[in-house]
Amino acid sequence: MMRRLLASLSPQDSLYPGALFTAARIAHDAVAAATNLQRVVVEYGRSVWADSALVLLTQLYFAQGDPAATVQAAERLRRDYPDSPLKPRADFWGARAYFDLKDDAHGCPLIQEALAGPGGGADVEFKNQVSFYAARCTNVTPTATSAVAESQPKAASNAGAYAVQVLAVKSAATVDDMLTRLKVMGFDARVVRDTSGLFKVRVGRYATRDEAQQVQRRLKTRIGGQPFVVEEP
Hints:
By secondary structure, the chain is of the alpha+beta class. The chain is globular, with a radius of gyration of 19 Å. It is 56% helix and 11% strand.
């Protein structure tokens, strides 16, 4: 039914992001759910559904055992929607992901914000869950920078940089889908078109091949396929 509804609506229709969100909620598999939620976040970031989609993505990524993606989704909600009433939920899942990454210094500020945030006291079960994890943070000193940001090699601004190529196709729709996935995951993705008409999806510009290879390995783990390092002028 939702597939027919989406097919009948124009992507410019104000109902479209809500339909995507609902389709994600009732999807039979995690891949379809994540794809629809990512579209809401990237394509309809100003809609009322965007922060809800990010919270569901934090839960989905955490359930899939991907703490890095969980942190990225949680931090994106914190950055883009700081006044969202759902922020304590994102803080909670982001904190749990940081804890799984053995990074209490970043997880504890989030769990404490979740405990103090609006709406936390109204849901007793949620408050109890947050309080359970907050107990581990008694003697932890927070740090100011993000562990995920620290783990990402910095892009190079000079010429002669390296990038990671993920895709080379002639289908604009395929390119759009890949760009959406990569951007939601926190990668600096872009498109290069060559003289043959191929759209090449590439990530980053890195000063050394070693830095690019780190990202290549991360991309292969996250999205599969055969990403490879290229040198750009």
